[in-house]
């Protein structure tokens, strides 16, 4: 059996793995990537957050992405019946990027993988990790290439960026109850041949059907648009078992987008994912770190998945470099606690979205400028900025303000 050696083995060539690979390559640390699929391959997670731009830049990937002409995203719009909540990232509290992209992930992930290979990192495609044997910090990973050839990879450290493949979470029994539970999603793409010009054909928009149910519209620069619904698992039981039929039935419930998408054929049979949230008991251990979705996924409502995937990929790569250099690394403080600080902010926002409290703030008729700017910074992914009261006090502030709105004590 062929055996390879590397300092760092990265499992998965999604955004998390590619940012990790980009950083390590820049730092001259040896790494190789194994990826189960062949690229391009479909993936969901198409609306990015400005915070992730910092990570792409640090990993040396930003210029390659810029060259592709993806649809720029300057903010996001939320609509519920006649109410509107619109956020412009240039008006956010604090410093940081005020734009990013909306991307068809098949194309986007291919750009990242091509750039990583151009820089000299080897990616094995159609290479599925089957098993990992740890001996102290060293590991021997069994990989099957093209469903037939078995190889073994010896590594000093593994970055598991396998997304929903959840390689180490499954193998080491690390799965835990998710922080947000019981939501499903269904989504597809259309070619929008009659797309309106300007904002209506460019801006990501969320149409809220009820407190628990919402729809996304994400237009791409290639003329295709992503459409999807998220709700509690039970909501989906009210529709046909045939995904195409069900999706058409769901589209009829839209008020703002009344009939706009009904006549377009789906570019692929709508995909339904049940119970979309994920969690683990720990995100690092002897000789490995979990990054991106292989560690945790909350909910799509604030498009935070790729931002966390790249943040954790970059952070883990930085710590891994120190580790293989023989330096002492405090994984608990510098990785687990750091990541949880950001995730817990979004987790509060997602929970308060589904209680309806956050929706009261979003759809308030006379929003107070400072509050909107501070929320906007969170929506841009700046969830580690403790100068922002909506970060620092994330557990209480949304509920408190919602109650003040209810009692008409505050005009936000
Ligand atoms: C309905 C829905 C909507 C979403 N919308 C958004 C959004 O708008 N914005 C956003 O930022 N996020 C969104 N997300 C989240 C987003 O999809 C993920 O957070 C993001 O793709 C995670 O990136 P990743 O690099 O961790 O994993 P992935 O991008 O999933 O990459 C993991 C890679 O690992 C490979 N792999 C898996 N198993 C193995 C194995 N055994 N061996 C080798 N390779 C393997 C896979 O083939 C894959 O290419 C959404 C999620 C859902 C469910």
UniProtKB/TrEMBL annotation:
<dbReference type="GO" id="GO:0071949">
    <property type="term" value="F:FAD binding"/>
</dbReference>
<feature type="domain" description="FAD-binding">
    <location>
        <begin position="6"/>
        <end position="175"/>
    </location>
</feature>
<protein>
    <submittedName>
        <fullName>Pyridine nucleotide-disulfide oxidoreductase</fullName>
    </submittedName>
</protein>
<dbReference type="InterPro" id="IPR050816">
    <property type="entry name" value="Flavin-dep_Halogenase_NPB"/>
</dbReference>
<dbReference type="Pfam" id="PF01494">
    <property type="entry name" value="FAD_binding_3"/>
</dbReference>
<dbReference type="InterPro" id="IPR002938">
    <property type="entry name" value="FAD-bd"/>
</dbReference>
<dbReference type="InterPro" id="IPR036188">
    <property type="entry name" value="FAD/NAD-bd_sf"/>
</dbReference>
């Amino acid at each position: 059996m062929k055996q390879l050696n590397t300092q760092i083995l990265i499992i998965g060539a999604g955004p998390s793995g590619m940012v990790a690979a980009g950083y390590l390559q820049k730092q001259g640390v040896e790494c190789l990537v194994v990826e189960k699929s062949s690229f391009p391959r479909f993936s969901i997670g198409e609306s990015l957050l400005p915070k992730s731009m910092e990570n792409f830049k640090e990993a040396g990937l930003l210029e390659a992405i810029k060259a592709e002409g993806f649809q720029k995203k300057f903010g996001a719009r939320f609509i519920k019946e006649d109410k509107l909540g619109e956020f412009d990232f240039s008006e956010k509290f604090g410093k940081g990027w005020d734009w990013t992209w909306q991307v068809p992930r098949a194309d986007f992930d291919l750009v990242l993988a091509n750039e990583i290979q151009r820089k000299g990192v080897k990616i094995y495609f159609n290479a599925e990790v089957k098993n990992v044997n740890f001996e102290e910090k060293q590991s021997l990973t069994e990989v099957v290439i093209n469903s037939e050839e078995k190889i073994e990879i010896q590594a000093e450290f593994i970055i598991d960026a396998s997304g929903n493949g959840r390689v180490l979470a499954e193998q080491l029994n690390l799965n835990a109850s998710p922080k947000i539970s019981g939501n499903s999603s269904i989504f597809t793409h259309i070619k929008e041949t009659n797309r309106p010009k300007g904002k209506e054909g460019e801006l990501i928009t969320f149409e809220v059907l009820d407190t628990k149910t919402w729809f996304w519209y994400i237009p791409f620069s290639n003329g295709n648009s992503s459409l999807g619904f998220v709700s509690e698992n039970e909501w989906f039981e009210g529709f046909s078992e045939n995904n195409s039929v069900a999706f058409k039935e769901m589209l009829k419930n839209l008020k703002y987008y009344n009939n706009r998408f009904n006549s377009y054929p789906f570019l692929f049979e709508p995909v339904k994912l049940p119970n979309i949230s994920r969690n683990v008991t720990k995100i690092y251990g002897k000789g490995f770190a979990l990054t991106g979705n292989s560690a945790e996924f909350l909910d799509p409502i604030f498009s935070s998945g790729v931002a966390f995937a790249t943040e954790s990929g970059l952070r883990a790569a930085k710590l891994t470099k120190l580790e293989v250099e023989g330096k002492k690394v405090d994984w608990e403080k510098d990785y687990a606690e750091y990541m949880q600080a950001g995730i817990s902010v979004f987790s509060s926002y997602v929970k308060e979205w589904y209680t309806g409290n956050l929706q009261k703030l979003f759809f308030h008729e006379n929003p107070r400028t400072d509050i909107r700017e501070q929320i906007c910074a969170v929506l841009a992914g700046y969830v580690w900025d403790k100068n922002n009261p909506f970060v620092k006090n994330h557990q209480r502030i949304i509920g408190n303000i919602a109650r003040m709105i209810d009692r008409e004590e505050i005009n936000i």
